[in-house]
Protein backbone atom coordinates (compact mmCIF):
# COMPACT_ATOMS: atom_id res chain seq x y z
CA UNK A 1 0.00 0.00 0.00
CA UNK A 2 1.52 3.32 -0.99
CA UNK A 3 0.28 6.57 0.51
CA UNK A 4 -0.73 9.55 -1.56
CA UNK A 5 -2.60 12.82 -1.08
CA UNK A 6 -5.49 11.41 -3.16
CA UNK A 7 -5.79 8.39 -0.82
CA UNK A 8 -5.78 10.62 2.27
CA UNK A 9 -8.53 12.86 0.80
CA UNK A 10 -10.59 9.81 -0.26
CA UNK A 11 -10.38 8.28 3.21
CA UNK A 12 -11.32 11.60 4.81
CA UNK A 13 -14.60 11.51 2.87
CA UNK A 14 -15.34 7.81 3.47
CA UNK A 15 -14.95 7.54 7.23
CA UNK A 16 -11.38 6.19 7.15
CA UNK A 17 -12.66 2.65 6.60
CA UNK A 18 -10.26 1.82 3.78
CA UNK A 19 -7.00 1.78 5.72
CA UNK A 20 -5.44 -1.68 6.09
CA UNK A 21 -3.31 -2.95 9.02
CA UNK A 22 0.34 -2.02 8.40
CA UNK A 23 1.70 -5.51 8.99
CA UNK A 24 0.35 -9.09 9.02
CA UNK A 25 0.02 -11.17 12.18
CA UNK A 26 1.57 -14.46 11.06
CA UNK A 27 1.91 -17.59 13.18
CA UNK A 28 5.57 -18.48 13.84
CA UNK A 29 7.03 -21.00 11.39
CA UNK A 30 9.18 -23.86 12.69
CA UNK A 31 12.32 -22.53 10.96
CA UNK A 32 13.79 -19.32 9.51
CA UNK A 33 17.16 -18.32 8.06
CA UNK A 34 17.56 -15.40 10.46
CA UNK A 35 15.65 -14.56 13.63
CA UNK A 36 15.81 -11.08 15.10
CA UNK A 37 14.98 -11.02 18.81
CA UNK A 38 13.36 -7.73 19.84
CA UNK A 39 10.85 -5.74 17.80
CA UNK A 40 12.06 -2.28 18.82
CA UNK A 41 13.49 0.24 16.38
CA UNK A 42 16.81 -1.56 16.02
CA UNK A 43 15.34 -5.03 15.50
CA UNK A 44 12.81 -3.83 12.93
CA UNK A 45 15.37 -1.72 11.06
CA UNK A 46 17.72 -4.72 10.96
CA UNK A 47 15.00 -6.93 9.50
CA UNK A 48 14.15 -4.27 6.92
CA UNK A 49 17.75 -3.87 5.74
CA UNK A 50 18.30 -7.66 5.72
CA UNK A 51 15.31 -8.05 3.42
CA UNK A 52 15.81 -4.95 1.27
CA UNK A 53 19.60 -4.79 0.85
CA UNK A 54 20.76 -8.36 1.42
CA UNK A 55 17.71 -10.03 -0.12
CA UNK A 56 17.34 -12.47 2.77
CA UNK A 57 13.99 -14.20 2.39
CA UNK A 58 13.16 -16.14 5.54
CA UNK A 59 13.37 -13.63 8.39
CA UNK A 60 11.34 -13.35 11.59
CA UNK A 61 11.26 -10.65 14.26
CA UNK A 62 10.20 -12.02 17.65
CA UNK A 63 8.80 -9.41 20.03
CA UNK A 64 7.74 -10.28 23.56
CA UNK A 65 5.14 -7.48 23.77
CA UNK A 66 3.74 -5.16 21.12
CA UNK A 67 5.63 -3.11 18.54
CA UNK A 68 6.49 0.29 19.94
CA UNK A 69 6.08 -0.74 23.59
CA UNK A 70 9.80 -0.52 24.38
CA UNK A 71 12.20 2.40 24.20
CA UNK A 72 11.40 3.11 20.56
CA UNK A 73 8.07 4.48 21.80
CA UNK A 74 9.40 5.99 25.03
CA UNK A 75 12.21 8.28 23.95
CA UNK A 76 12.24 12.07 23.60
CA UNK A 77 12.54 11.76 19.77
CA UNK A 78 15.81 13.68 19.36
CA UNK A 79 18.25 12.91 16.58
CA UNK A 80 21.63 14.54 16.02
CA UNK A 81 25.19 13.63 15.07
CA UNK A 82 27.19 15.95 17.33
CA UNK A 83 29.89 13.60 18.63
CA UNK A 84 33.58 14.19 19.27
CA UNK A 85 35.18 10.78 18.75
CA UNK A 86 35.74 9.72 15.15
CA UNK A 87 34.17 6.24 15.47
CA UNK A 88 30.99 7.69 16.94
CA UNK A 89 30.80 10.74 14.68
CA UNK A 90 31.02 8.79 11.42
CA UNK A 91 28.43 6.26 12.65
CA UNK A 92 25.91 8.84 13.87
CA UNK A 93 26.38 11.02 10.77
CA UNK A 94 25.61 7.95 8.66
CA UNK A 95 22.44 7.59 10.73
CA UNK A 96 21.48 11.23 10.27
CA UNK A 97 21.85 10.91 6.50
CA UNK A 98 19.60 7.83 6.59
CA UNK A 99 16.99 9.78 8.59
CA UNK A 100 17.01 12.45 5.89
CA UNK A 101 15.93 9.75 3.40
CA UNK A 102 13.72 7.73 5.78
CA UNK A 103 10.30 9.02 4.71
CA UNK A 104 11.05 8.77 0.99
CA UNK A 105 12.67 5.33 1.26
CA UNK A 106 9.81 3.87 3.31
CA UNK A 107 6.94 5.96 1.91
CA UNK A 108 5.92 6.69 5.49
CA UNK A 109 5.37 10.00 7.28
CA UNK A 110 7.42 10.09 10.50
CA UNK A 111 7.08 13.86 10.97
CA UNK A 112 10.83 14.34 10.60
CA UNK A 113 11.66 17.89 11.57
CA UNK A 114 15.22 19.19 11.18
CA UNK A 115 14.62 22.03 13.59
CA UNK A 116 18.20 22.07 14.94
CA UNK A 117 19.90 21.04 18.17
CA UNK A 118 21.72 23.60 20.34
CA UNK A 119 24.11 22.56 23.13
CA UNK A 120 24.55 25.53 25.47
CA UNK A 121 27.96 26.40 26.92
CA UNK A 122 28.52 28.24 30.17
CA UNK A 123 32.29 28.83 30.44
CA UNK A 124 35.33 29.51 28.25
CA UNK A 125 36.61 25.98 28.82
CA UNK A 126 33.31 24.48 27.74
CA UNK A 127 33.26 26.70 24.64
CA UNK A 128 36.73 25.43 23.69
CA UNK A 129 35.58 21.82 24.12
CA UNK A 130 32.56 22.54 21.89
CA UNK A 131 34.79 24.15 19.23
CA UNK A 132 36.82 20.92 19.19
CA UNK A 133 33.66 18.84 18.91
CA UNK A 134 32.29 21.08 16.15
CA UNK A 135 35.53 20.65 14.19
CA UNK A 136 35.31 16.87 14.56
CA UNK A 137 31.75 17.03 13.21
CA UNK A 138 32.79 19.14 10.21
CA UNK A 139 35.71 16.81 9.42
CA UNK A 140 33.23 13.91 9.31
CA UNK A 141 30.89 15.70 6.92
CA UNK A 142 28.34 16.86 9.51
CA UNK A 143 27.21 20.45 10.11
CA UNK A 144 28.14 22.56 13.13
CA UNK A 145 27.88 26.28 13.88
CA UNK A 146 29.21 28.04 16.96
CA UNK A 147 26.72 30.61 18.26
CA UNK A 148 27.87 33.47 20.48
CA UNK A 149 25.61 34.99 23.11
CA UNK A 150 24.18 37.64 20.74
CA UNK A 151 23.31 35.00 18.10
CA UNK A 152 21.66 32.88 20.76
CA UNK A 153 19.69 35.77 22.30
CA UNK A 154 18.07 36.32 18.88
CA UNK A 155 17.10 32.64 18.51
CA UNK A 156 16.13 31.93 22.12
CA UNK A 157 15.36 35.16 24.00
CA UNK A 158 13.68 33.22 26.83
CA UNK A 159 16.86 31.58 28.18
CA UNK A 160 18.31 32.66 31.54
CA UNK A 161 21.51 34.32 30.24
CA UNK A 162 22.45 36.14 33.40
CA UNK A 163 22.11 33.29 35.87
CA UNK A 164 24.98 33.95 38.30
CA UNK A 165 25.82 30.26 38.62
CA UNK A 166 25.41 29.10 35.00
CA UNK A 167 25.67 32.18 32.74
CA UNK A 168 24.95 31.22 29.13
CA UNK A 169 27.78 32.27 26.82
CA UNK A 170 26.64 30.63 23.58
CA UNK A 171 25.96 27.28 21.99
CA UNK A 172 27.07 24.65 19.50
CA UNK A 173 24.30 24.39 16.92
CA UNK A 174 23.64 21.49 14.58
CA UNK A 175 20.92 22.77 12.20
CA UNK A 176 20.33 19.31 10.64
CA UNK A 177 19.50 17.69 13.98
CA UNK A 178 15.93 17.66 15.24
CA UNK A 179 13.02 15.41 16.16
CA UNK A 180 11.08 12.51 14.63
CA UNK A 181 7.82 10.96 15.76
CA UNK A 182 9.29 7.89 17.49
CA UNK A 183 6.51 5.31 17.15
CA UNK A 184 6.07 6.20 13.47
CA UNK A 185 9.63 4.95 13.06
CA UNK A 186 8.64 1.54 14.45
CA UNK A 187 5.48 1.42 12.34
CA UNK A 188 7.33 2.57 9.19
CA UNK A 189 10.03 -0.10 9.49
CA UNK A 190 7.48 -2.78 10.44
CA UNK A 191 5.31 -1.98 7.43
CA UNK A 192 8.27 -1.94 5.02
CA UNK A 193 9.78 -5.16 6.43
CA UNK A 194 6.41 -6.91 6.34
CA UNK A 195 5.93 -5.93 2.69
CA UNK A 196 9.28 -7.60 1.95
CA UNK A 197 8.07 -10.84 3.55
CA UNK A 198 9.47 -10.53 7.09
CA UNK A 199 7.28 -12.31 9.69
CA UNK A 200 6.76 -9.93 12.63
CA UNK A 201 5.55 -12.01 15.55
CA UNK A 202 4.30 -10.08 18.58
CA UNK A 203 3.61 -11.58 22.02
CA UNK A 204 6.46 -14.02 21.41
CA UNK A 205 9.02 -13.95 24.20
CA UNK A 206 12.38 -15.67 23.80
CA UNK A 207 13.02 -17.59 27.00
CA UNK A 208 16.08 -19.67 26.07
CA UNK A 209 18.57 -20.76 23.41
CA UNK A 210 19.34 -24.31 22.23
CA UNK A 211 23.13 -24.35 22.27
CA UNK A 212 25.28 -27.40 21.62
CA UNK A 213 29.06 -27.49 21.16
CA UNK A 214 29.17 -23.68 21.22
CA UNK A 215 26.65 -23.29 18.42
CA UNK A 216 23.04 -22.10 18.61
CA UNK A 217 20.39 -23.87 16.52
CA UNK A 218 17.06 -22.64 17.94
CA UNK A 219 15.34 -20.31 20.38
CA UNK A 220 12.77 -21.38 22.92
CA UNK A 221 9.76 -19.07 23.12
CA UNK A 222 6.36 -18.98 24.80
CA UNK A 223 5.03 -19.98 21.36
CA UNK A 224 7.32 -22.97 20.88
CA UNK A 225 10.85 -23.69 19.71
CA UNK A 226 11.92 -21.96 16.49
CA UNK A 227 15.02 -22.94 14.53
CA UNK A 228 17.28 -20.65 12.52
CA UNK A 229 20.81 -20.41 11.17
CA UNK A 230 21.47 -17.03 12.77
CA UNK A 231 20.01 -15.07 15.68
CA UNK A 232 20.36 -11.29 16.06
CA UNK A 233 19.65 -10.05 19.59
CA UNK A 234 18.42 -6.40 19.71
CA UNK A 235 16.51 -6.17 22.98
CA UNK A 236 17.93 -2.87 24.35
CA UNK A 237 17.18 -2.65 28.11
CA UNK A 238 16.72 -6.44 28.35
CA UNK A 239 20.15 -7.20 26.82
CA UNK A 240 21.76 -8.63 29.97
CA UNK A 241 18.69 -10.70 30.87
CA UNK A 242 18.28 -12.23 27.38
CA UNK A 243 21.99 -12.91 26.88
CA UNK A 244 22.19 -14.52 30.32
CA UNK A 245 19.92 -17.22 28.83
CA UNK A 246 22.77 -17.99 26.45
CA UNK A 247 25.23 -18.08 29.38
CA UNK A 248 26.84 -14.74 28.43
CA UNK A 249 27.59 -11.90 30.81
CA UNK A 250 27.70 -8.49 29.10
CA UNK A 251 29.55 -5.25 29.94
CA UNK A 252 26.10 -3.64 30.24
CA UNK A 253 23.88 -2.49 33.13
CA UNK A 254 20.19 -1.63 32.94
CA UNK A 255 19.15 1.78 34.28
CA UNK A 256 15.91 3.80 34.14
CA UNK A 257 15.58 7.03 32.15
CA UNK A 258 12.50 9.23 32.47
CA UNK A 259 10.76 11.58 30.02
CA UNK A 260 8.27 14.39 30.71
CA UNK A 261 5.62 16.18 28.64
CA UNK A 262 3.85 19.41 29.61
CA UNK A 263 0.40 20.66 28.61
CA UNK A 264 0.17 22.00 25.05
CA UNK A 265 1.52 25.55 24.69
CA UNK A 266 1.92 28.00 21.81
CA UNK A 267 5.17 27.49 19.83
CA UNK A 268 8.09 28.87 21.84
CA UNK A 269 11.06 26.46 21.72
CA UNK A 270 12.65 26.79 18.26
CA UNK A 271 14.50 23.44 18.27
CA UNK A 272 16.16 21.09 20.71
CA UNK A 273 18.06 22.85 23.50
CA UNK A 274 20.39 21.16 25.97
CA UNK A 275 21.69 22.68 29.20
CA UNK A 276 25.49 22.43 29.44
CA UNK A 277 25.92 22.75 33.19
CA UNK A 278 23.50 20.04 34.27
CA UNK A 279 21.55 17.33 32.53
CA UNK A 280 18.43 18.81 30.94
CA UNK A 281 17.20 18.81 27.33
CA UNK A 282 13.99 20.14 25.84
CA UNK A 283 12.06 20.43 22.60
CA UNK A 284 8.43 21.19 21.77
CA UNK A 285 6.18 18.65 20.10
CA UNK A 286 3.98 19.52 17.12
CA UNK A 287 1.00 19.39 19.51
CA UNK A 288 2.68 22.06 21.66
CA UNK A 289 3.79 19.96 24.65
CA UNK A 290 7.23 20.70 26.05
CA UNK A 291 9.09 17.37 25.86
CA UNK A 292 12.02 17.18 28.24
CA UNK A 293 14.29 14.92 30.24
CA UNK A 294 17.55 14.69 32.11
CA UNK A 295 19.76 12.10 33.74
CA UNK A 296 19.20 8.40 34.30
CA UNK A 297 17.91 7.44 37.74
CA UNK A 298 21.33 6.08 38.66
CA UNK A 299 20.47 2.64 40.02
CA UNK A 300 20.00 -0.69 38.25
CA UNK A 301 16.39 -1.53 37.43
CA UNK A 302 14.11 -3.23 34.92
CA UNK A 303 11.09 -1.13 35.99
CA UNK A 304 9.72 1.16 33.29
CA UNK A 305 9.07 3.95 35.77
CA UNK A 306 11.34 6.35 37.63
CA UNK A 307 11.85 8.03 40.96
CA UNK A 308 11.05 11.45 42.44
CA UNK A 309 14.66 12.50 43.07
CA UNK A 310 15.34 12.63 39.33
CA UNK A 311 12.04 14.44 38.73
CA UNK A 312 13.33 17.13 41.09
CA UNK A 313 16.77 17.17 39.44
CA UNK A 314 15.27 17.55 35.94
CA UNK A 315 12.96 20.36 37.12
CA UNK A 316 15.91 22.17 38.73
CA UNK A 317 17.82 21.95 35.44
CA UNK A 318 14.82 23.33 33.57
CA UNK A 319 14.34 26.20 36.00
CA UNK A 320 18.03 27.13 35.83
CA UNK A 321 18.08 27.38 32.06
CA UNK A 322 14.57 28.73 31.33
CA UNK A 323 12.68 29.87 34.47
CA UNK A 324 9.46 30.34 32.47
CA UNK A 325 9.09 26.55 32.44
CA UNK A 326 7.97 26.80 36.09
CA UNK A 327 4.57 28.04 34.87
CA UNK A 328 3.89 25.01 32.65
CA UNK A 329 1.84 22.12 34.04
CA UNK A 330 3.18 18.61 33.63
CA UNK A 331 0.86 16.32 31.70
CA UNK A 332 2.63 12.96 31.58
CA UNK A 333 5.87 11.24 32.48
CA UNK A 334 7.22 7.74 32.00
CA UNK A 335 10.39 5.67 32.19
CA UNK A 336 12.29 3.30 29.93
CA UNK A 337 15.06 0.81 30.62
CA UNK A 338 18.48 1.77 29.22
CA UNK A 339 21.16 -0.70 28.19
CA UNK A 340 24.09 1.31 29.56
CA UNK A 341 27.50 0.15 28.34
CA UNK A 342 30.70 0.69 30.30
CA UNK A 343 32.03 3.41 27.95
CA UNK A 344 28.73 4.90 26.78
CA UNK A 345 29.16 3.58 23.21
CA UNK A 346 27.28 0.72 21.54
CA UNK A 347 28.16 -2.87 20.61
CA UNK A 348 27.35 -4.44 17.21
CA UNK A 349 29.23 -7.71 17.08
CA UNK A 350 29.31 -11.50 17.00
CA UNK A 351 29.28 -13.29 20.35
CA UNK A 352 31.45 -16.25 21.41
CA UNK A 353 28.47 -18.51 20.56
CA UNK A 354 28.28 -19.42 16.88
CA UNK A 355 25.04 -18.15 15.37
CA UNK A 356 24.29 -15.52 18.03
CA UNK A 357 24.97 -11.87 17.17
CA UNK A 358 24.49 -8.93 19.51
CA UNK A 359 23.34 -5.32 19.11
CA UNK A 360 23.07 -3.19 22.28
CA UNK A 361 24.67 -0.82 24.74
CA UNK A 362 22.75 2.12 23.25
CA UNK A 363 22.48 3.97 26.54
CA UNK A 364 20.06 6.89 26.25
CA UNK A 365 21.10 7.79 22.70
CA UNK A 366 20.00 4.82 20.64
CA UNK A 367 16.93 6.29 18.98
CA UNK A 368 18.96 8.51 16.69
CA UNK A 369 21.11 5.48 15.85
CA UNK A 370 18.17 3.35 14.65
CA UNK A 371 18.74 3.39 10.85
CA UNK A 372 22.54 3.07 11.02
CA UNK A 373 22.28 0.38 13.68
CA UNK A 374 19.82 -1.59 11.54
CA UNK A 375 21.97 -1.22 8.43
CA UNK A 376 25.21 -2.20 10.20
CA UNK A 377 23.66 -5.11 12.12
CA UNK A 378 22.05 -6.43 8.92
CA UNK A 379 25.45 -6.19 7.21
CA UNK A 380 27.07 -8.19 10.02
CA UNK A 381 24.34 -10.85 10.02
CA UNK A 382 24.36 -11.20 6.23
CA UNK A 383 28.10 -11.11 5.57
CA UNK A 384 29.72 -12.07 8.90
CA UNK A 385 31.85 -8.92 8.54
CA UNK A 386 31.46 -5.70 10.52
CA UNK A 387 30.14 -2.79 8.50
CA UNK A 388 32.98 -0.28 7.82
CA UNK A 389 31.20 2.34 9.99
CA UNK A 390 30.72 -0.04 12.95
CA UNK A 391 34.12 -1.74 13.04
CA UNK A 392 34.95 -0.20 16.42
CA UNK A 393 31.79 -1.40 18.18
CA UNK A 394 33.23 -4.75 19.25
CA UNK A 395 32.51 -6.70 22.42
CA UNK A 396 36.17 -7.33 23.18
CA UNK A 397 37.10 -3.62 23.30
CA UNK A 398 36.43 -3.69 27.06
CA UNK A 399 38.80 -6.65 27.49
CA UNK A 400 41.47 -4.92 25.41
CA UNK A 401 41.05 -1.49 27.02
CA UNK A 402 40.04 0.11 23.69
CA UNK A 403 37.12 2.02 25.14
CA UNK A 404 35.20 4.57 23.06
CA UNK A 405 34.61 6.89 25.99
CA UNK A 406 32.92 9.87 24.34
CA UNK A 407 32.50 11.69 27.64
CA UNK A 408 35.87 10.68 29.12
CA UNK A 409 34.12 9.69 32.34
CA UNK A 410 35.59 6.23 32.95
CA UNK A 411 34.11 2.78 33.08
CA UNK A 412 30.93 3.55 35.02
CA UNK A 413 27.65 3.30 33.10
CA UNK A 414 25.84 5.77 35.34
CA UNK A 415 28.33 8.50 34.34
CA UNK A 416 27.72 8.26 30.60
C1 LIG B 1 12.87 8.37 28.35
C2 LIG B 1 13.80 8.07 27.22
C3 LIG B 1 14.26 9.10 26.42
C4 LIG B 1 15.14 8.85 25.36
N1 LIG B 1 15.46 9.86 24.52
C5 LIG B 1 16.24 9.61 23.43
C6 LIG B 1 16.46 10.63 22.48
O1 LIG B 1 15.90 11.74 22.57
N2 LIG B 1 17.29 10.37 21.45
C7 LIG B 1 17.88 9.16 21.30
O2 LIG B 1 18.66 9.00 20.36
N3 LIG B 1 17.64 8.14 22.16
C8 LIG B 1 16.81 8.33 23.21
N4 LIG B 1 16.51 7.31 24.08
C9 LIG B 1 17.14 5.99 23.88
C10 LIG B 1 16.46 5.15 22.82
O3 LIG B 1 15.07 5.19 22.95
C11 LIG B 1 16.98 3.69 22.91
O4 LIG B 1 18.39 3.67 22.95
C12 LIG B 1 16.54 2.85 21.71
O5 LIG B 1 15.17 3.04 21.42
C13 LIG B 1 16.82 1.37 22.01
O6 LIG B 1 16.63 0.55 20.89
P1 LIG B 1 15.24 -0.13 20.47
O7 LIG B 1 14.38 0.88 19.82
O8 LIG B 1 15.52 -1.32 19.64
O9 LIG B 1 14.66 -0.56 21.89
P2 LIG B 1 13.24 -1.13 22.33
O10 LIG B 1 12.13 -0.40 21.66
O11 LIG B 1 13.24 -1.17 23.82
O12 LIG B 1 13.27 -2.59 21.71
C14 LIG B 1 13.70 -3.76 22.37
C15 LIG B 1 12.56 -4.75 22.30
O13 LIG B 1 13.00 -6.02 22.75
C16 LIG B 1 11.88 -6.67 23.32
N5 LIG B 1 12.33 -7.78 24.14
C17 LIG B 1 12.97 -7.74 25.34
N6 LIG B 1 13.19 -9.00 25.80
C18 LIG B 1 12.68 -9.84 24.85
C19 LIG B 1 12.61 -11.27 24.75
N7 LIG B 1 13.07 -12.05 25.72
N8 LIG B 1 12.01 -11.81 23.65
C20 LIG B 1 11.50 -11.01 22.65
N9 LIG B 1 11.56 -9.65 22.72
C21 LIG B 1 12.14 -9.08 23.81
C22 LIG B 1 11.21 -5.55 24.13
O14 LIG B 1 9.86 -5.85 24.42
C23 LIG B 1 11.38 -4.36 23.20
O15 LIG B 1 10.22 -4.13 22.40
C24 LIG B 1 15.61 7.52 25.14
C25 LIG B 1 15.13 6.49 25.94
C26 LIG B 1 14.21 6.75 26.96
C27 LIG B 1 13.67 5.62 27.77
Brief overview:
The protein has helices at residues 5-13, 41-53, 86-106, 124-139, 149-155, 182-195, 239-244, 308-321, 370-383, 397-400; strands at 31-37, 59-62, 78-79, 117-121, 145-148, 170-174, 178-179, 199-201, 206-212, 215-221, 224-233, 252-264, 272-274, 281-284, 289-300, 330-341, 347-350, 356-360. It is α/β, with parallel strands linked by helices.
Uncertain segments: none
Assign the structural class, choosing from mainly alpha, mainly beta, alpha/beta, alpha+beta, or little secondary structure.
Answer: alpha/beta
Strand content: 25-35%
* Helical segment count: 10
Please estimate the helix content.
25-40%
Query: How big is the Rg?
Result: 21 Å
**Major sheet details:** 8 strands, mixed
Shape annotation: globular
Bound molecules: flavin-adenine dinucleotide
Secondary-structure element order, as H and E? HEHEEHEHEHEEHEEEEHEEEEHEEEHH
What does this structure look like?
The chain is of the alpha/beta class. The protein is 28% helix and 26% strand. The chain has ten helices and 18 strands. Strands 1, 2, 8, 9, 10, 11, 17 and 18 form an eight-stranded mixed sheet that branches. An eight-stranded mixed sheet has the order 5-6-4-13-14-15-12-16. A two-stranded antiparallel sheet has the order 3-7. β10 and β11 (224-233) form a beta hairpin. α2 crosses α9 (370-383). The longest helix has 21 residues, at 86-106. It is globular. The mean pLDDT is 96. Residues 37-43, 62-65, 69-72, 74-78, 205-206, 234-238, 242, 257-259, 293, 336, 362, 364-368 line the site of flavin-adenine dinucleotide.
